[in-house]
Write a structure and sequence with these properties.
Two copies of one chain form a homodimer. In chain A, a hairpin with a 5-residue loop joins β4 and β5. Chain A is an alpha+beta fold. Chain A has ten helices and ten strands. In chain A, 44% of the residues lie in helices and 22% in strands. In chain A, α6 crosses α8. Chains A and B meet through β4, β5 and α5 of A and β4, β5 and α5 of B. Chain A binds a DNA duplex (30 and 30 nucleotides) through α8.
DNA sequence: TTCTATTTGTGTGTTCCCGCACAGACGCTT
DNA sequence: AAGCGTCTGTGCGGGAACACACAAATAGAA
């Protein structure tokens, strides 16, 4: 329960607010620690809190009735999980799961709903972020349709690394298979290729990125497009 | 240029506004005729107008550098094209193409931007619609990943039919291949299957749905999920 | 009518990924 | 150190969709 807030990385969304606006919201912000695998929202759940990751990552998953899942959005310190509450819907349409453990700032849904009825910098910023997430989902939708598992794995590892601010992190092939919407064996093949080319190194749930430049080259165009988009609205 | 507004179907988004709010906006609403294949926004274009379809359909496409495309959102009389302007971004991230000719109501981006800074029923309604579109994109993302061309074609035809309010409409296999993100030959196979089962009939760009019940059964679960979601916010 | 462009049909070989079925490797516990 | 659970590696058969290459049918224009 004891939140170990390192303070190194802070949520860039909140961070880009004007000082006065941040001060106004500060009393509503509660630091929390998110642990790996924690499910913040299940599909259909009422959303009680929204989360602004600092050095953690939250994955938004779409799930089918046959239990196959696919990540449709990745939320790091550039964003927030639970944006639908701001849009007036407090039932989650995706599963939100902690993909990278770390700290985050939480806010109650009540507060977010109140902010939806108040114009200002925060309102505007959430509009921009909503658009950015919308953009990310659209791009990954096409990416999942057209690109190979190798390319998508490379893109996904780069995006994860960017958000964690770290080249090494804990993730099993099984977990990644649920994100990429492919079988664990498929992830194994792709990861083997990347490791054989010395772009990554991995073992029993630990992954290290060895060569960011070549890994990015192996990733599809979608990586650059998404990265560019998610920096647009942050000042 | 002469807009032939039949008036039968009206945009349900605008239609669900309280009378007073509608009256306030009425001077800004301009009826327009949309012709098949017309490109409303190209990727990267500045958005000058937003569109509220009456009996027309606008498809939002994501395009890759190798020219392959995929529909990420379908906008009919339940929605609006150009929602990103409301979110403060007037550059289009998708291609918007008229998939079904018909009438629509247009509004200038300037007006939409003004409404983003004014709270009220219209503001709230656009929030809800934004969430609904977000939901549709997420679901179709997973659908495109997991479901067969047959199922996706069935779903897509049902969605198109719903929005046009018609069981017969003009569409070539080539066009559909660009929506589903598969080859034209792939659409041919799937359409053959559906025709052999007497669910649809088609010939040279004209498609008729013969058996909605069985076609819906052939479609994946995504159809029902999307249909349900897109009716939620309309009163 | 004849010609032409568009639309649809189909065959062949290939590739990617799936499903299944294990086997091996590693780390943690007792 | 023995055992067990987790994680990773790999082989094989199959199926869906791909790329390419044409052939046939139809609508509309000349």
């Amino acid at each position: 329960m004891d939140a170990q807030i390192t303070g190194a990385a802070v949520n860039r969304l909140l961070n880009s607010l004007p000082a006065a606006e941040y001060e106004r919201l500060a009393p509503e912000l509660k630091p929390v620690a998110l642990s790996f695998g924690q499910v913040l929202y299940e599909i259909g759940d009422a959303i009680k809190h929204v989360y602004f990751p600092n050095d953690s990552i939250i994955s938004l998953l779409s799930a089918m009735s046959d239990r196959s899942t696919l990540e449709v959005g990745m939320v790091g310190n550039e964003g927030m999980a639970g944006i639908s509450v701001f849009m007036g819907v407090d039932v989650s349409l995706t599963r939100a799961i902690v993909q990278g453990a770390g700290s985050a700032i939480s806010m109650t849904s009540t507060t977010i709903r109140r902010e939806a009825n108040r114009l200002g910098p925060f309102h505007q910023l959430l509009h921009r972020y909503s658009h950015s997430l919308h953009s990310q989902i659209s791009q990954s939708s096409a990416c999942n349709r057209f690109h190979s598992v190798d390319a998508r794995l490379a893109r996904w590892l780069m995006m994860t690394s960017d958000r964690l601010g770290n080249d090494e992190f804990r993730l099993t092939q099984d977990f990644m298979s649920k994100m990429l919407g492919v079988r664990r064996e498929g992830v194994n093949r792709a990861a083997s290729h990347l490791q054989a080319a010395h772009m990554i190194r991995y073992s029993r749930g630990m992954i290290a990125i060895l060569d960011r430049v070549r890994l990015e080259a192996r990733a599809c165009e979608c990586y650059a497009i998404m990265k560019n988009e998610s920096d647009q609205y942050l000042n």
